[in-house]
Amino acid sequence: MPYMLALRAADLPTKTAAVLLCAMLVVIPWLHGAELLWEQMFAAALIFLSFSMLLLSHSRDKVRHSAVRFSVIFGVIWICYHVLYLIPMPLSLLKLLSPSAFSWYTHPLMSESPALSLYRFATLTEVIKFAALVALIPLVYRLCQFRQAAQLLIIVMVLTAAATSIYSLLNFATEGRFDIVPAIPPWDYPWQEGIRGTYSYKNQYAVYLAMSVALGTGWCMSIYQSIRLRNVAVTHWLFSLSFLKLATVVTLTGLLYITLLNTASRGAVLSLSLSLLLVFGSYVLLQADRRRALMRPRVLIAGSLAVIVGALLFLQSSAFERFTNYEFEDNGRQQLRETAMHVIADFPLTGTGAGTYPYVQHNYKPASLGNSGMSQRAHNDYLETLATQGIIGTGLTVLFIGALLSSVFKRSNAGASPYLLACRCSVLTMLIQSAIDVNLSTLWLPVFFIIICVLGCYFRETSQSSRTQSEGDEAEQARQR
Asked: Are residues 385 and 347 in the same domain?
């Protein structure tokens, strides 16, 4: 396969960096998505080691993609800002910056040195994770410069997700007989209550699957597009290696979808559905030639069959059963959001410190929420980020992520490749889901998100350059004529 030769021209350090990155893509989803502290530090260590290998490579090419470059710059500023939370400071300065933090540290039972973070160890671990996320951006982008490397990363991500899907379906069917990744309490529910995969919290596994379904769909579209470009008759390619490859990828993507439905996660299913509708709907409707292509009988029949099969699978799933029984009941999420708003009101400018929310929320939440694992999070990543990082930190986070998103979703006259559409859909799925659940308590989901954002930047860049080159070739042919 050409993907296996993607890094053939690279030197040894670059190949080592690629191997380490692929190893992380395969291993970390099987470690609860890096939920425990040692799992998070192991994942971060793999990223740092891979990044170090890249620094040792002979290539010293600068990152020329402006969005990627600005994201790294804002990311470094973001990390430096959070390092300030770890530094002890005079009480007078702390009172000026955060009166509530001043009250916290002047409590008679508090003996630690005053700082912006209410729990410095929690913030220190977050700073390490933030640094890993920032290092991931130039690492992935640099590796993508080798032919087919970006496609190889997507294939590894989809195949890994499919492996966890098969593992999950086996345990779902046998009531956990093959369970080798036991859930971390209090999420150790029976498998029949919903597939949790290799994670503990099934909603986090569900959003991982939803993002992988989007990538798998893009992979299928790419294979089909390559078949169409060859202008091969249907009777010929039905018995070709290309058809076997397409059928295999469609089957794997279908397994991911079936597993997603049986996680019983309403939010992940809705997020994926909405992102598919927005991304592919806008892609088709914005240009007349795409609308005409959509109206072809072959496309209409294939699309209708896909919708019918998807609907039938949904009607037989745990997700449909949960929609039927609970509809849109929020399971106390409104109270959790109100708790986060109370924290924000007390720490508006600087927040409580990254990673500290589980340690401070009990001072604000109503007694009716109890002290369950669910109640320790805001179940809205945007509100929780604002509560812990404050207006300043959240603003820097927006600049860091927004630089990548501006490139991924920027409209281009060159159109969009199937992989770019898949990246957009995958990213949008997590952005929507983060408004109704907690995705940042594990390291893997942010890592997965950042990798897909960088891949999206790369695929948009290559789509634009391909269009420019094509227009140049057409102009040259016109001059020759």
From this structure: yes
| Closest C-alpha to 182, from 36, 394, 319 | 36
Q: How many residues does the chain have?
A: 481
346's tokens: 């007390």
One-letter amino acid at 117 equals: S
Cβ contacts of 192 within 8 Å, gap of 6 or more: 172, 175
Residue 102 to residue 83: CA distance in whole angstroms: 18
**DSSP annotation string for 289-316:** HHHHHHTSHHHHHHHHHHHHHHHHHHHT
Q: Are 46 and 128 in the same domain?
A: no
10-residue mean pLDDT profile of the chain (481 residues): values are 57 88 96 94 96 81 79 96 95 92 84 88 96 96 86 95 95 90 85 86 94 95 80 60 86 93 86 91 73 66 70 61 59 83 94 94 79 77 96 97 94 77 96 92 95 94 59 41 44
> How much is the pLDDT for 471?
40
For 440-452, give the DSSP string: TTSSHHHHHHHHH
Residues contacting residue 440 through CB under 8 Å, at least 6 positions apart: 381, 384, 385, 434, 446
Q: What is the structure's pLDDT at 468?
A: 42
* Structural domain of 35: 11-59
Per-residue model confidence (pLDDT) at position 152: 92
Do 247 and 368 have their domain in common?
A: yes
CB 267, CB 433: distance < 8 Å: yes
Alpha carbon distance 361, 164 (integer Å): 33
Same structural domain for residues 44 and 96? no
C-alpha 41/C-alpha 117 separation (Å) is 20
CB 463 within 8 Å of CB 417: yes
Q: 50 and 194: one domain?
A: no
